[in-house]
Amino acid sequence: MTSGKPLDGALFIPRFLLRTLLLAGVVLVFYQLLRLTAGPRLFPALPLVARRFSTLVLNGQLPYHILVSARRVFAGLFLSLLVAIPVAVAMSRFPKADKILSPLLYLVYPIPKVTFLPVLMLVLGLGDASKISMIFLIIVFQVIVSLRDALRALDRRAFQAVRAFGGGKLDVARHVVIPATMPALLSALRISGGTAVAVLFIAESFATEDGMGFFIMDAWSRVSYADLHCGVLALSLFGLGLFGLIDLAEWWLCPWQKPMH
Residue 35, Cα to own-chain centre: how many angstroms? Predict the structure, then answer.
């Protein structure tokens, strides 16, 4: 009996693109309605925005700012995983660690992380360090909570079954722990990743000269509405690409989840 994974893989990208095109059509219709309501000054004609978008891409402005924002997001993401995974494992396996860390987690987790931005800027400066730290704070607590709960929910009989067949710790991790917790980890990244992009926009709006937040606010201050809409479109495409990467990772690492179906 053959697995459905190759066929699913062949259909994954076409389905993702089809749904993206349908969503883009809805957005374009909504844009036209706003243009009719608010006037062409605030919402320039779509051909004008499209021409300006291609110009900004070709002259390197949009790619530069997108890459700067992407570097900050992925750096914060990497640091979050580097910290969150061992902390979640420790909290799930060692009751003393859980008793010590849980109060701190429950105290800090509900606080909107954007409130830490002024403090981070004062301590770390206005460069990348404060922005990456902000993204780190947004993602790390979500990942710790989700991964810890997934680890606690593991069925101990699965551990016993692997050991009964002569499996060691690496086999338990490979065949039980990772498959059981990967969906929770990817879901946490999906939720916190969108929030991280939104907060990064706010962080890049203060005393900086690069990133999509700077580009959009600079266009707004220059009353260049075509550039502003191009920046919003570029930021949306970046978010779409980020979610697409997470969905692709979920399809590859968790085929039983059947994402995008």
Answer: 30
